[in-house]
Amino acid sequence: MGTKAREIVELDVEKLIAELNRAYADEWLAFYQYWISARVAQGRESKVVVEELKRVALEELEHAEELADRIIQLGGRPLTNPKEWLTKANCAYKEPPNDPKDVARIIKDAIEAERCAISVYNKLAETTHSKDHATYHLARHILDEELAHEDAFENML
To answer: Where are the domains of the chain?
Structure first.
């Protein structure tokens, strides 16, 4: 546990860890949503979408790793049971459509997921601003990437 890491945070650290764990669950669900969608998507328009889904999925996995590291720095424990991801997440998991050629639905679901993530990280940045510099910078870093993801998916429609 990071004693000084907890000491310099001017927030309820346990509540902050809970918020970080919810974001952590979001990232795992986003990773899987994009990863599986990239594997099942078919059709003429799917090639570019599949490549973008694969790229963004890896960034979502990176976010999960960064959040896990911060949770541990604060003396917490990242959610260890995948069942908890569905119950603790802020954002909904969307299964790929039954029609693998419905690439537009996959993109719309990705946009919805990114918009939810943007809201989560914007709130986390507001909450931690001037109260927890490390988490604030992490939230801003992830927020910037989520904004870019939304833009990329919107441009595909």
So the answer is: 19-90+97-156
Q: What is the pLDDT of residues 69-107, one digit of tens each?
A: 999 999 999 999 999 999 999 999 999 999 999 999 999
Residue range 19-90+97-156, CATH number: 1.20.1260.10
The predicted-structure confidence for 114-152, as pLDDT tens digits, reads as follows 999 999 999 999 999 999 999 999 999 999 999 999 999
H-state helical runs in the chain = 3-7, 13-40, 46-73, 82-88, 103-128, 133-156
Q: Is pTM beyond 0.85 here?
A: yes
Contact 116, 92 (CB under 8 A): yes
What spatial distance separates the first Cα and last Cα of the chain, rounded to whole Å?
45
